[in-house]
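Section 5.1 Outputs to date
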Amino acid sequence: MPAYQFILNGQTVSVDAPSDLPLLWALRDLLGVTGPKYGCGVGVCGACTSHLEGDAFRPCIQPVSGVAGAHVTTIEGLAGDGLHPVQQAWIAEDVAQCGFCQPGQIMAAVALLRKNLDPTDADIDAAMSDNVCRCGTYVRIRAAIKRAARQLREAGTELR
């Protein structure tokens, strides 16, 4: 089996895996990174959403071979020490119920706010439309994104 090396949450990692192994399974089963959740396995629910070179992507449909040499960030690597502003907004707005989809929701929200720190409801809906919450906390998700955007704008902070 070939070894694939990539940067995961700021650290270089290497995994021995078949080239077509979905990255989600390499993360969870081989590297012990369990923030990205398995929801559907076909890239439609968003529970596994992470970042590849800063953009949201679905590791359940990305083969591990496709991230060789790339930067991958999961919810675990989002803030380093402490909480990311979006995570803080999630807590302030009491978004999570069961919490299963929340890592993917947060990662999608961060990707949106990297590109647009003043999103409209339509912008938020479009960016988050591929992330499913079975508990239906969409109103609170939108409120948390708006809160985080407002706080980031007021602080003059750009997301990395």
